[in-house]
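Pilot study result, target chain (222 residues):
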Amino acid sequence: MSEIEVKDKSGKKSGSVKVSEKLAKATTSGTTVHRTIVSEESAKRQGTQSAKTRSEVKGGGKKPYRQKKTGRARQGTTRAPHYAHGGMALAVKPRDYDKKVNKKERRAAILTVLAEQIEAGNVTVVESFQFTTPKTADAVKALKAVGVYDARRLLIVLPEVDTPTYRSLRNLGHVVVKTAPSSQQGGKEGGKTDVFSARDLMVADRILVVKEALERIQGVWA
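Predicted structure:
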């Protein structure tokens, strides 16, 4: 097992946490990681887009003009696709964009990306990261003390999200707050967050993980 230094909110070293061998040496194919991220992105699509076909557009029941002796092409309705205000040819309809990925594949992809971030030195572990009152200034001060505030995109993984912590971080545009697996989000605002994904790990420049959240990740997935 390898170890990662643990800091407190003031940025001082408070100990270390062991990284299990399964997480430290996690590896899988690039195809599995790619399929997992594509699946995660596809699941975000609502698939509610809908356009009307010529049979669904109101009107057009009367023949525009007679069939013969006009010198023009015959027409049966003004709701054909080539008419203004007509229906759409090959109209898009609601559909499900979900792409199935096996649970073991998804977990392998997440652990692989997390292991690469740990090896690259982009993961910082803190003892705790909670605020009693919602105040963005306190969150900024804590992030600067830990040394991760200047990251272009920062991922914060908490064991659980409470309302004061969520409100302290939500105004920081470069910060994404997620939770560890099998956690119960607390508070109405906290419920807006969810478990982090492989894409969250991959696009993050720095990752701030609470010690309890890392232990939960290893206990559930590794």
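One observation from the pilot: Residues 2-45+99-220 form a domain with the Ribosomal Protein L4; Chain: A; fold (CATH 3.40.1370.10). A full batch analysis is planned for the follow-on phase.
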